[in-house]
Amino acid sequence: MLNNANNSPVSDAVVSVEGSAPTEKTRAVPRCQLVASAEVTERDAQGRLSARVSEIGLGGCYIATPSPFPNGTLVHIRIIRGAGALDCEAKVVYVHDRSGMGIAFTNIALDQRRLLQNWIAGLVTQSK
Fold it and tell me: What is the distance between the alpha carbons of residues 17 and 22, in angstroms, rounded to a whole number?
């Protein structure tokens, strides 16, 4: 789990927008579009897949794959971007059958969090 500037826990949970229709949803932590390679390994069963990251945020990412792990699966994720790689523990928090899965980062080392923050800062700057 990451902490925000106030040192409060931050997740990548989907929350309802106050005053909006129940189907309208927004993220507690926004995501940026990113195309990067990923290796996702089940922590218990040791199932492994190579896939593509299509979105990333401080709280998690979306993995595009035709064979997503089941909701609730605990995983280790490695995201490779340029010369850098982000490694952390995570959990599958939602699944789109035959297209991908949402991953929430659950345990990320300080140096890995800094790398992630730098990636996101660069992505935000590029999108302006």
Answer: 8
pLDDT per position as a tens digit, 50-83: 999 999 999 999 999 999 999 999 999 999 998 8
Question: Could you tell me the CA-to-CA distances from 89 to 32, 107, 112 in Å, in that order?
Answer: 20, 5, 11
Rg (CA), the chain: 14
Report which residue type is found at 31: R
Contact indicator for 30, 55 with CB cutoff of 8 Å: no
Q: What is the DSSP string of the chain?
A: -EE-TTS-EE---EEEPTTS-TT-EEESS--EEEEEEEEEEETTT--EEEEEEEEE-SSEEEEE-SSPPPTT-EEEEEEEETTEEEEEEEEEEEEETTTEEEEEEEE--HHHHHHHHHHHHHHHHHH-
